[in-house]
């Protein structure tokens, strides 16, 4: 049952996912990188953040890895109100050089990875509806700030994201060296599929060994009230040590709890896997990965072909 809306919260017109006029205008004007219009958040938006945070806190304490818990503490997030990104960056940037960068919506793949390379994290600023706390097919500010950004306070993890951005630059260079356009698109589609699968099974849905057993570090799990416990406790989930050849050939679907998860030993281990991914890319080992999800959009493909590298 939702809390009564706090009259002390500001009450703007709303920054609700799919119902935010500010975002609609930015998209219609072709603006991808924007500012966070904090005064537009409604009381219900703040209440949604409050209820999401309160639901997740016990699960974080039980299932989240120590780096995430330290990050939550270091960011000084307010459990009562949607965070101001400038406040988040005040605490985040001195730790790893990263900052949350507000965006109006979908970021083409190369631009997303290029942001990571520059220690910027494209951040959604809308928040899900209060009557739909459990599942959202697209990211929102709770997923991005409470799920992803605490991990960005850890130097080893932050360096891994930058390394992933380097990997994307390599993919763009290789693609642009391929003169036959049809072959260029075919190879690039395969390489991006491999990169997307790797990102999904690590940054979004990764597990890590620790002194107290398996813990969660993937942001998709860290922002899901139901799935975070399921990922650790359920006998229906297959959990395997991460193997790059398996990960890049394993399709995934986004609309249900994940039945297969991969475990890393540490963020240094994860960093080394990204380096191996890049080497395989250079050697052509990612040119023919298994078909299936995720599908690559034309905008994602084009963003690599037209990238300034």
Describe the structure.
The chain is an alpha/beta fold and 309 residues long. Helix 11 links the parallel strand 5 and strand 6.
How many individual domains?
A: 1
CATH superfamily: Aromatic amino acid hydroxylase
- Number-wise, the strands total 6
C-alpha end-to-end distance: 51 Å
> Biggest β-sheet, characterized?
4 strands, mixed
- Arithmetic mean of pLDDT: 93
Topology:
Layout: H1 21-28, H2 43-63, H3 66-75, H4 85-96, E1 99-103, H5 109-117, E2 120-124, H6 141-148, H7 155-177, H8 181-204, E3 207-208, E4 215-216, H9 219-222, H10 227-233, E5 238-241, H11 244-247, E6 260-264, H12 267-282, H13 298-305
Parallel strand pairs: 1-2, 3-6, 5-6
Antiparallel strand pairs: 3-4
Helix pairs in contact: 5-7, 7-8, 7-12
